[in-house]
Amino acid sequence: MGARKRISADKRKEALKTMYFAKLNNVPTSPRKMRLVADMVRGMEVFKALGVLKFSSKEASARLEKLLRSAIANWEQKNERKAESGELYISAIYVDAAAMLKRLRPAPQGRGYRIRKRSNHVTLFVDTMSKNDNQN
Q1: Rounded Cα distance, 53 and 46, in Å
Q2: Domains of the chain with CATH codes
Q3: Fewest CB within a 10 Å sphere: which of 26, 43, 96, 109?
Q4: Residue 130: its pLDDT value, please?
């Protein structure tokens, strides 16, 4: 690795130390379905978002609820204290496409239709409300 890339990588690593996030890779759900659930909770206070996800009928909401609990635990681990109601909120949530499994389905007249089984990566960032208020 060159010196310039190493400096850039070190800066990125230092920035990640002050951020609180959780990642979920290779979720076997299409990104479009996961984005519907992610849009429901984007920018919401974390305990309110947990309630929304718990009572949502979508299959992806259970995975996102577990991811949000992990992000809260990561925040508690780095700050060495428990999260209080109204303190944390979801600052950013990204749903990116992952690898696609390509399968063939038999079709009439000897043909085959391609089936794309999509998967996704989800990244969820949490932050404190007071930190956000000071910047504005």
Answers
A1: 10
A2: 21-135 (3.90.470.10)
A3: 109
A4: 76
Least trusted range by pLDDT, from 14-28, 47-61, 121-135: 121-135
* Residue 127, C-beta contacts closer than 8 angstroms, at least 6 positions apart: 19, 20, 88, 89, 91
| 45-73: pLDDT as tens digits | 999 999 999 999 999 999 999 999 999 99
Q: Say how far apart CA 52 and CA 123 lie, in whole Å.
A: 18
d(Cα 44, Cα 50) in Å, to the nearest integer? 10
Beta-carbon contacts of residue 74 (< 8 Å; ≥ 6 apart): 20, 21, 22, 126
Alpha carbon distance 5, 89 (integer Å): 33
Angstrom distance (rounded) from CA 62 to CA 84: 22
pTM summary value: 0.86
